[in-house]
Amino acid sequence: MDTTKHLHVGRPNLGNRERFLERVNEILDRRWLTNHGPVVQEFESKVADFLGVKHAIAMCNATAAIEIACRALGLKGEVIVPSYTFVATPHALQWQEITPVFCDMDPVTHNIDPTKIERLITPRTTGIIGVHVWGRGCKTEAIEEISTRRNLKVMYDASHGFGCSKGGRMIGTFGECEVFSFHATKFINCLEGGVVTLNNDDLAYRMRMMTNFGFTGYDQVEYLGINGKMNEISAAMGLTNLEAVNDIIAVNRQNYEAYRSGLTDVPGISVIKYDPAERNNYQYVVIEVDPERCRRSRDDIVKTLHAENIIARKYFWPGCHNMEPYRSLQPNAGLLLSETERIAARVIVLPTGQAVAKEAVSRICEIIRKAAMAEHRTANNK
Ligand code: T4K
Predict the structure, then answer these.
(1) Most buried residue, 138, 184, 302, 303, by most Cβ within 10 Å?
(2) Which residues contact 266 (CB under 8 A, 6 or more apart)?
(3) Alpha helices in 220-357, H assignment, sequence order
(4) Which pTM value belongs to this model?
(5) Is 305 touching ligand 1 by the criterion CB < 6 Å?
(6) How would residue 251 be classed by pLDDT, with cut points 50, 70 and 90?
(7) What separation in Å is there between the alpha carbon of 233 and the centre of ligand 1?
(8) Ligand 1 touching residue 127 (CB < 6 A)
């Protein structure tokens, strides 16, 4: 696929190119490329300041960061997670032989439904991982009320939530810790990267050691560790993009509003909403196709978009419980995941970000409008 001809979901947002290259030159001149160098340290302190947390620990990606955070928290046995998430969330658990127990979603917020958590708790349950899907905060109060009462650890996969708030409080400040992704496709990117944020000094110390093989000094290892470190070039990218945070939000918001007005009166198509009372990064433009009201199916609309070189995505279809190894290990999980299955079959994520101009948004809306309003052609009525 010649990617330059396509409008993709996930095209990276980029800060000032000259500033990035300048930073790269400084890194090369310094000959300090990784292992908690000065640029990583600066990136960590800028992220911590931005969110108002004590510790921000930079790592190589969010998947490794979730694994390290789970280890540091002592999670084992079973951990409750939503099925409606990127497969990295349950994989980070399963990779450590912790069973992800899938919880259904709230169809309005697309996040884990706290009213369905308690029935999944068993004597083996040690924790809950909420995911702030699309950057819309989980019902943190309800989750934390359950976890306190049932003595469970709570952490959040905040991969989508950088720059967003819940109840006026920044995402990144909830639970025992939160994990952000700074992958190329994310609101702010480090090429590849992840950051764990938290306020607990002991836990932060443990995570730092675990990220660097468990070293506590030259020749001294105190923990089982792994190589989860972020490198200097990734941090340079992160710092540069962080400087553009307001510009990126402005572009994302403009595109989001343009999609909303471009799709307002298309029957059976709705654009998910962001609460204007919160801080939002508007990184995801997500539509739902209602099969009762729309003349064409979600999959038909996606096919039409792809045929026009618009690479829209069906995140997070078909739900993690329908992917391996979970489909084989937990063949009945779907019985308790009716909302997840219903919503995952309706969602389309549309291209946005700096690489998508306003005119492109109008064109995409027109294609969706025409596709959604056209009669479905069958073999008999061609
Ligand atoms: N938790 C959640 C809730 C997540 O959403 C993610 C990541 C994670 C955990 C794990 O975080 P990391 O360990 O990755 O830090 C993509 C991303 O690779 C993945 O990071 C992201 N979620 C997920 C939602 O999207 P795929 O499998 O869809 O990747 P792919 O290769 O199809 O690329 C996505 C789109 O982005 C394509 O349309 C092409 C475009 N793209 C991608 C790259 C890398 C570009 O235009 N330029 C690029 O450089 O997972």
Answers:
(1) 138
(2) 368, 369, 372, 373
(3) 232-242, 245-263, 298-307, 326-329, 338-344
(4) 0.96
(5) no
(6) very high
(7) 19
(8) no
Residues whose CB is less than 8 angstroms from the CB of residue 250 and which lie 6 or more positions away in sequence, other chains included: none
Q: For residue 127, give the DSSP letter.
A: E
Per residue in 102-159, pLDDT tens?
A: 999 999 999 999 999 999 999 999 999 999 999 999 999 999 999 999 999 999 999 9
Instruction: Indicate which residue's Cα is closest to atom 12 of ligand 1.
Output: 62
Q: Which two tokens stand for residue 87?
A: 């497969």
d(CA 161, CA 186): 9
What are the angstrom distances between the C-alpha of 310 and each of 270, 348, 363?
Answer: 19, 12, 10
Does ligand 1 have an atom closer than 6 angstroms to the CB of 11? yes
CA dihedral 117, 121, 124, 126 (to 10 degrees): 40
Torsion of CA 104, 94, 229, 164, to 10 degrees: 0
183 ligand 1 Cβ < 6 A:
yes
**Is 89 within 8 Å of 102 (Cβ atoms)?**
no
Query: Distance between CA atoms of 307 and 364, rounded to whole angstroms?
Result: 12
Per-domain residue ranges for the chain? 17-243, 245-373
CA 342 from centroid of its chain's CA atoms: 20
Q: Is 110 in the pocket of ligand 1 (CB under 6 A)?
A: no
Whether domain 17-243 has CATH 1.10.760.10: the reply is no
327: amino acid identity, one letter:
R
Q: Answer whether 166's CB lies under 8 Å from 137's CB.
A: yes
User: Which residues have CB under 8 Å from 324's CB, separation 6+?
Assistant: none
13 lines ligand 1 (CB under 6 A): no
Tokens matching residue 186: 């994310």
Give the position of tokens 């029957």.
267
Q: Which residues contact 27 (CB under 8 A, 6 or more apart)?
A: 33, 37, 39, 232, 233, 236
Tell me 323's DSSP state.
Answer: S
Does the structure show a pLDDT above 60 at 54? yes
Please identify, by atom number, the ligand 1 atom nearest to the C-alpha of residue 64: 13
Fold observed for domain 245-373: Aspartate Aminotransferase, domain 1 (3.90.1150)
